[in-house]
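Retro notes (design track)

What went well: tokenization of the new backbones is finally stable.
What didn't: we kept losing track of which sequence belonged to which structure.
Fix going forward: every design gets posted as structure first, then sequence, in one message. First example under the new rule, 267 residues:
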């Protein structure tokens, strides 16, 4: 899981450089972890906080960094959808029923279309009349398309999810006596389900992760006690890691001198 976080910071740097903004690895990684720490208490606040910290620590314009974070989230959403298709192909629509998502599919489709429409209107408005703030947000968003090399971006995106999968698999291997193949597939299914749970606006995925994860493992034939213990352990270890690394990030910020007022550009 730690490796996955490191790779995510690396990918974020590539996106920022695609927007012609340079930053060293340290500020990007620790800003990311402090943002994750904030998300455990207040969902989505961490995204703004990490952009604020990157501005303070590396002088990257806040609006541009925010645009890159939006692009990063959309990229992860696309990858999550592709992973979900592999699960649906094997488990069928029963998996969607286990997630409890079937009644919400029309709303999700409508939300996707609405988001694309709003994005198109934003681009059209900027062509007609530019605004420095929106221009920087869009510049950061387009960094995902300009990030080079493409092969490295793709590899990092896949390895991030592979790291998440490996972390869940490790917990299952420690707690269950099932075969490795069954555990590997269970970890894959739980990975996709946990991605859906963490995408919901709930602090740290508390509650949603457990309900969705437990339902998925029971649908795969797990015993209830083992399934519950696995879900609790996976979420607890992930949360403790975020708290630990986020705490180190706060110390990093406390002992890192901020740029002077003359050095800092407008956020």
């Amino acid at each position: 899981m730690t490796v996955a976080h490191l790779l995510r910071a690396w990918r974020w740097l590539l996106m920022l450089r695609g927007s012609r903004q340079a930053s060293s690895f340290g500020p990007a990684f620790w800003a990311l972890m402090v943002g994750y720490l904030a998300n455990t208490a207040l969902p989505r606040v961490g995204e703004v906080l990490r952009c604020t910290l990157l501005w303070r620590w590396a002088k990257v314009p806040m609006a541009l960094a925010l645009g890159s974070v939006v692009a990063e989230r959309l990229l992860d959403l696309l990858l999550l959808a592709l992973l979900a298709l592999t699960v649906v192909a094997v488990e069928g629509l029963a998996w969607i029923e286990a997630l409890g998502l079937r009644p919400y599919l029309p709303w999700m489709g409508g939300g996707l279309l609405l988001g694309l429409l709003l994005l198109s209107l934003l681009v059209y408005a900027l062509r007609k009349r530019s605004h420095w703030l929106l221009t920087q947000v869009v510049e950061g968003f387009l960094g995902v398309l300009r990030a080079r090399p493409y092969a490295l971006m793709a590899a990092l995106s896949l390895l991030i999810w592979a790291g998440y999968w490996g972390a869940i698999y490790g917990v299952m291997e420690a707690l269950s006596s099932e075969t490795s193949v069954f555990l590997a597939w269970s970890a894959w299914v739980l990975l996709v389900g946990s991605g859906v749970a963490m995408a919901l606006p709930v602090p740290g995925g508390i509650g949603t992760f457990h309900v969705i994860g437990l339902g998925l493992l029971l649908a795969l034939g797990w015993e209830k006690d083992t399934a519950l213990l696995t879900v609790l352990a996976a979420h607890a270890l992930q949360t403790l890691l975020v708290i630990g690394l986020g705490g180190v990030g706060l110390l990093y910020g406390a002992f890192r001198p901020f740029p002077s007022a003359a050095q800092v550009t407008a956020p």
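Added context from the reviewer: The chain has one domain: 2-255.
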